[in-house]
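Appendix B, example 12.
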Amino acid sequence: MTGSGPLAITGATGFVGQAVLDAAARQGLAVRALARREQPPRAGVEWLRGDLADGAALRRLVAGARAVLHVAGVKTAHPTGLHAGNAAGTEAVVEAARAGGVERLVFVSSLAARMPGLSAYGRSKRHAEEIVQTSGLDWTIVRPPAIYGPRDCDLLALFRAARWGVVPLPPPGRASVIHVDDLARLLLALVAPAASPTTAERIVDPDDGRPGGWSHRELACAIGAALGRRRVWAPHLPAPLLRTAARFDSLLRREAARLTPDRAGYMIHPDWVCAPERAPPPDLWRPGIATPQGLADTARWYRAAGWL
């Protein structure tokens, strides 16, 4: 890793990016962040206007940077949009880093990239990973599982359902989870110079440290407990019903749909547990937030923000 300049971050205005900025502020790290729209001033952060399709903005982002943390991505879009936001966007970041002489790149992918045949999102993330792996940079790829915490919209629907004691679930399966603050700590640890010898050219799967992850029902009950409910009814929905619901949601809400056919395909797969052999080096990072406590803290945040 070269230089002692700021850390360059894409996706800083999103769910994970905001947590990274919070963690960077606590550590006193200087950050240069890319944003599509004007952002309010924030101590320690230099905002740059632009996006991943703006080559000039990317060059300004990485100029003199000590490392690049590429968080930006697209989750719900037409396959063409997923490719543009995830694969083509990553290629643009890689090209800017190489041209700017920045050697260290940490890329936030997704566990969905492990099974690219299940979703267009997973395929776009796998393609992005391949771009990073052949970049010639000093890279590390992070594949988070389901991320939860304050500001999260993806698991909010489960909290809202659990409030009423009913949490509809996909077919039986297991999944790993991670609190966004734990993920943010890991990402900042990975861009530090000491991380490169043990994580260079490596894919890491971080999680909350629970062996074997959580069954869907266990996670539903844990969310219920976080809301003060001793019991929740958590029926498993058949795969055909989920696919039908996804088609209707896409037809009715179009770009605003949360349950897309792409996401339904991901949910129906029974195994989204992180691979233990791909855990980050324990001397570099360990999860610090137990999921029951993290879910309770998240529920309190939702209530305070008026989201529940």
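Residues 71 and 78 are 20 Å apart (CA to CA). Residues 7-145+179-208+275-287 form a domain with the Rossmann fold fold (CATH 3.40.50.720).
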